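Exercise 7. Predict the joint structure of the components listed below.
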Amino acid sequence: MAKDPVRVLVTGAAGQIGYALVPMIARGIMLGPDQPVILHMLDIPPAGEALNGVKMELVDAAFPLLKGVVATTDVVEGCSGVNIAVMVGGFPRKEGMERKDVMTKNVSIYKSQASALENHAAPNCKVLVVANPANTNALILKEYAPSIPAKNITCLTRLDHNRALGQISERLSIQVSDVKNVIIWGNHSSTQYPDVNHATIKTPSGEKPVRELVQDDKWLTSEFIKTVQQRGAAIIKARKLSSALSAASSACDHIRDWVHGTPEGSWVSMGVYSDGSYDVPPGLIYSFPVTCRDGEWSIVQGLSIDEYSRKKLDLTAEELSEEKALAYSCLS
Ligand code: NAD
Ligand code: LMR
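Solution:
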């Protein structure tokens, strides 16, 4: 029997991530090849005409799974009945700007969209915040939508996770799908900590630690970390625009694994509400290693954290605490 369609909201749908993301959703890349979808696309009035153009293209592409398109600049209409909300709308970082610079503009959007989701989304709606500062926007959304369970509000660090996999596969000239269990800890910013201490590589003679195969601790602790931390800025420098296709694809990975589960023995990175695991202060949206099952994520417990990693985990937590204070000062 055909499944009922799932309603997926994409805010900022007329923007560049939106343009890459909506066809992926309509093709089943986010929710699977047998899951019909109804796309809700929200943007602001100045982008209304462009948004209609995207809707026309979706119709023209004749996606078999796409059962309807709501293209709107009305936040209530956009949020009504949605089962999944991918929050991309906001102002992107431009060359030379730090995430803090975009804070003032973006946190107020997330405060107002929190109430629309709280009042009009379907019960148990899953929320993924992509727009920067992603962790802090997600936190503001959570705080101003108190009836949405905290576990339903997440932010995107899967792009950073995928970037880390990509760097290791390039370094060793191996398939990216043979690398697993890297971790992105903390903020989706240059203080994030890409950690390979538990990462492994599939080889013909079984799984081997990344450290054993790379055999270059200097590269792993300097260039690798820096490249992943600074990749967003490097893309902006090269494209004069922030990453879009990789962000859209990683957003699909995030939701797909959350809904359908992570493979046995592997984890992914997601920005989730801290419960104090690994001594990360509760009350922050922080990227942890998680496994997903039955539509719920759980933080992977019991991983050893050496002294070097401890400092990195604390540093990015400190930045998030500062961002939280700054966000509240912007809203007051
Ligand atoms: P963009 O400027 O191309 O698109 C943003 C869209 O949001 C625009 O169409 C704009 O009109 C719309 N918008 C602005 N305010 C809105 C509101 N109140 N409601 C609905 N829509 C609104 O930007 P982009 O390149 O698509 O990037 C979007 C966001 O994603 C940026 O904040 C960017 O920094 C962030 N980003 C995050 C990641 C990540 O990994 N977390 C990666 C790449 C980009
Ligand atoms: C990215 O990681 O590509 C984006 O978050 C862009 C940015 O602001 O760095």
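Discussion. Residues 11-12, 14-18, 42-44, 47, 88-90, 92-93, 109, 130-132, 134, 156, 159, 188, 242-244, 247 surround nicotinamide-adenine-dinucleotide (ligand 1) (CB under 6 Å).
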